[in-house]
Amino acid sequence: MIDPALIRKEPDRVRAGLKSRGGRYLPAFEELLKLDEENRKLLSEVEGLRAQRNASSQAIGKAKASKDEVLSQKLMAEVGALKEKMGGLEAALAPLSEKTRSAAMGLPNLPHESVPQGTSEADNKVAREGGKPGAFDFKPLDHQTLGEKLGILDLAAGARLAGSRFALWRDSGAKLMRAIVNFQLDLHIKAGYREVWPPYLVRPEILEGTGQLPKFEADLYKTKNTDGDKANDLYLIPTAEVPLTNLVREEILPADKLPMKLTAYTPCFRQEAGSYGKDVRGVIRNHQFDKVELVRITKPEDSLAALEELTADAENVLKTLELPYRVLLLCTADIGPASRKTYDLEIWMPSENKYREISSCSDCGDYQARRMNARFRRDAKAAPECVHTLNGSGVAVGRLAAAILENGQQKDGSVKIPKALIPYFGADSISAA
Predict the structure, then answer these.
(1) Of the listed 78, 148, 357, 385, which one is catalytic?
(2) Is 296 a catalytic residue?
(3) Is the pLDDT of residue 409 over 70?
(4) HSE-up (13 A, CA, CB side) for residue 369
């Protein structure tokens, strides 16, 4: 959520930030300004009446103490009239306040000034590259074909069990997935991250806190409670960012608890409602996928430096596995709604002769913290301030497995396992059974 004080004091700055995202949010912002003005005006009127009522109530006590029954009855009549008027105004204030809050929650974060201006993903900037794509003296196969030939990836079985866009890994494929997870977690724990094993189902307000609700409702899997109480409905997590970041929800942290560095492996669930027809082959875009997530909670002045570190931590996975990749700095039009600055990591896929996203690392500033009411105090006497939150894939497990298959494929149909992964996998290659 954008700072309400900034919206009121510097609306032109907010307009410029929203315009840099493509401008589609500008009408919603103008509507928010109107709602906020109406809400504050009505709130001021209600608070004024409350002050009058309190003053009159105190005067009634004094009148009764002095046994002035005439004045007491007069004041009581005034308080009754004030209560009646307040009741109507308060009834109007509640839905107006909720409407104003909903409008504010619908706006994205403002891009940081260091983010390049752009109108599409074509304006993203290559920050750096790691390793060079290997040369093949044969036509490289895609990961699905490789996996099926090796007998380790079965999309047909996944579809029979759950429908399209669900994958089943077996034998060496299942072992490869497990090896990738353990390798990543160990690497991140060595870098100072604290491992967490969170719930995979969360309440709606938890998703609202990190920005998935209300905007991405259509992409989420929702459970319905059998007692019919919507308040008990739960959502499957689309990313471990959701439970990890919300660990500081409604908290006021002491400054010495920051920074926090958290990591978790979880399955993730997304309906991908807006991606019909895209990446239907293989495991690039599935409804259920696995990911090792990185989350950082920092002081405001530390978050941009923390983004560079977090991105380097995710990058270190690909670097250690000696896989070709590149890092993109996303432009204003391509960063996610909650982010103020984002780097994407893309891994080379030989069968497509192009890079594919495998991680997205974002600094959300105080945007999520305001939604979660997550704060810290610099010292015992200081006023609470919003923390800054950051998150990144460290990295997507299925996509990494696909990249290992494609980049490690040999002419005889086997797949070479990266050296750093061999201790976890237990062999240096995968061959057809």
Answers:
(1) 357
(2) no
(3) yes
(4) 25
